[in-house]
Amino acid sequence: MADTAWQWDETLYAGSASHYRIGRMPYPPRLADAVGEALDLDGTGRLLDVGCGPGSLTLLLAPLFEAAVGVDADRDMLTEARRRASEVGATTIEWRHLRAEALPADLGTFRVATFAQSFHWMDRPLVVRRVRGMLAPGGAWIHVSASTHQGVADDEMLPYPRPPWRQIDDLVASYLGPVRRAGQGWLPTGTPGGQEEIMRQAGFTGPTRIEVDGGTLVERPVDEIVSAVFSLSSSAPHLFADRLSAFEADLRHLLSEAARDGRFAERRREIAVAIWRP
Fold first, then answer.
1. Three-class secondary structure of residue 142 per DSSP
2. What gap in Å lies between CA 135 and CA 269, rounded to an integer?
């Protein structure tokens, strides 16, 4: 393993985009209601979704604004976002292929900027300064955090077994090694923390916190869990190289043995929302 600090590279989610739709539990509609209520959104202004991925949050929140821009560094994610937008007839969203560090990129000003499970991959002090300058007077920065690939771990009896996440992690480690992979590098201590300090140093106040829709019971077939695994940066398909087929076969065998009638059950984790004001 290299001793140098982790650096972003374009392979971070290579091969994962097509798995998001299947493997990630969608954000609940109540999230849009809660954000709209908290910010008194009335269909005016523009939304900037930074690190938008396949548009999961962008598409949910876009109806609250007159227009939206989704920005991501992964072309395949944006291809998936455009496809999903076309399917639902969303015509007010512009999709832009660029890194957050390249903002403002002549995109103009926005009423709200959102970061959903994405900020930790960026040069955060740089991005927070640049996005702060893109917010209109009275605007807000929203950070959405949740593990949408995996549910709550507890001892409650459910109608089907829980996915064997610990054994899945062990299987991934047997192929990729014990240190978490991310793109071409490693994250031995995981993704960085300290977000609140960075926000305050950049002149933001808050946050106002909202929690949405925890505890909903979901049933998940084997294919969904396979895609959940491949939707993660730590087990993105490219990392397995020529062993991808072997890994998927082992994963499916593990899941088939653990499932009942090909299904699992989990309770959703709460979606945590932090609203910051410049």
1. strand
2. 30
What's the half-sphere exposure (Cβ side, CA atoms, 13 Å) at 131?
A: 33
CATH code for the domain defined by 17-277: 3.40.50.150
Q: Which two tokens stand for residue 181?
A: 């992979």
DSSP string, 207-270: EEEEEE-TT-EEEEEHHHHHHHHHTSGGG-GGGGGGGHHHHHHHHHHHHHHHSBTTEEEEEPPP
Dihedral angle over CA of 129, 49, 80, 265, nearest 10: 110
| Ramachandran angles phi, psi of 147, nearest 5° | -95, 90
Instruction: Write the pLDDT tens digit of every residue in 98-152.
Output: 999 999 999 999 999 999 989 999 999 999 999 999 999 999 999 998 888 999 8
Under 8 Å between Cβ of 104 and 130: yes
Residue 27 has pLDDT above 50, yes or no: yes
Long-range contacts of 175-179 (CB under 8 A, 24+ apart): 175/240, 175/243, 175/247, 176/234, 176/235, 176/239, 176/240, 177/1, 179/1
The Cα 114–Cα 203 span in angstroms is: 17
**pLDDT tops 90 at residue 177:** yes
Q: Tell me, yes or no, if the pTM score tops 0.70.
A: yes
Closest alpha carbon to 64 in 43, 37, 47: 43
| Pairing label, strands 135-145, 271-277 | antiparallel
Query: pLDDT at position 3, please?
Result: 44
Q: Answer whether 80's CB lies under 8 Å from 18's CB.
A: yes
| Nearest C-alpha neighbor of 176 from the set 20, 168, 13 | 168
- Domain residue limits, the chain: 17-277
